[in-house]
Design a protein that fits this description.
Layout lengths: L11 H7 L19 E7 L11 E2 L2 E2 L3 H18 L3 E7 L5 E10 L4 E2 L6 E2 L4 H14 L24 H5 L12 H9 L7 H9 L15 H15 L3 H13 L20 E2 L8 E2 L9 H4 L2 E2 L1 H13 L11 H7 L10 E3 L4 E3 L2 E8 L2 E8 L4 E7 L10 H13 L16
Antiparallel strand pairs: 1-5, 2-3, 4-5, 4-15, 5-6, 7-10, 8-9, 11-12, 12-13, 13-14, 14-15
Helix pairs in contact: 2-12, 3-7, 3-8, 6-7
Amino acid sequence: MTHARTRLRRGAAAAAAAGTLALPLAVSAAFGLLDPEPTTFAVTLPDSLTIAKPSSVGGMRRLTPEVARQLDNAVQRVMRVAHIPGATVGLWTADGDSYVRSFGVADKARGLSMSPDLFMRIGSETKTFTVTALLQLVDRGRVRLDDPITKYVAGVPGGDRITLRELAGMRSGLFNYSADESFYKDLTSDPQRSFTPRQLLEYSFRHPAQFPPGQRFDYSNTNLILLGLVVQKAGGLPLGDFIRANVLAPAGLDHTLFPAGPAFPDPHAQGYTDQTASGRTEDAADWNPSWAWAAGAMISDLQDLRVWAHTVATGRLPNGRVLISPALQKQRLTTPPTTVPGAGYGLGVFNVQGWIGHNGSLPGYESLTVHLPSAGATLVVLLNTDVSHDGQEPSTLVGEAITRIATPGHVFDLPAERSSPG
């Protein structure tokens, strides 16, 4: 969720609602696309489930062929309306049913089809990994959530009154660096530029605090840059190395990485954005994600995110192991209300109508990775555009269309806000 998207900036709801890193710019006209057709289809069903009118288990409809057709139609309709080049969707149920589809194109220039095995940039979903690393250090007694940030990072305005808990919960009041106009100009004028965490913080610290810490919710990527520095200091390793050794390896996430530069493993989708110096839609696949760092630089794929969604929401890996203690997991999932109706935000994770997880948006890509514990359902959406439609994040539009069909009692609905916080 972001106010400045790992998309650069779009407004608090899109942000908070979208888990983004956003740039401060208006959305340009949508680009033309071919009608998205499904390129991959996989639904695993026991014979006994081939019924005309699907039943519901825990609020989740059975993934019968008829429901699959409804989902196909819904996703393709959103893609046509919102001009989404390519999409991959994965939906899994507690009883082993699954719906996995790819639609449209991964590369408009070459006409290559989307497929479920592609690497994608996941934007603000990175926050779930950074905060998990932080919570592991809390479990080890190396940091405390109620420590002030000044204990670990010097030079933070009012930092003696801002706790790590408030940073992780988006309640610090610190200005979002990716909403700074000069930052936007610096990034879009040279998308290959490498930023350091300290440089990113400088953009934020030029601005006064938005409000006293703890007073209210305000999605700010600045918070996660600071927490990334805390993990490095207390963990004794560069952030990417710590996450790789302590989060990715234990979880078996072999197709998830924290890139050190613009390098993008193959196969991957090209990503299309209108957050450009020219205002025209361009391919952002080779942009350097250093500007997003602990708030949104990571890369993953469909199957790894399926595992991660369940882990974040339940605190347990498929093998039953835990990455953080149950006590801290409970704190992570305490999600006070936000400025977005129907959405609560805890420690680097949101709860939208029962769906727990995060979304991500940065130039060229959007994602949504959520789990519905009441039904044991997992949803992952991966898109190769971040161009909004009528003020809404495309990943939210796809997520809403899917959940209206699959979990009508738990619709992933994040209304767009028309104004950003002051």
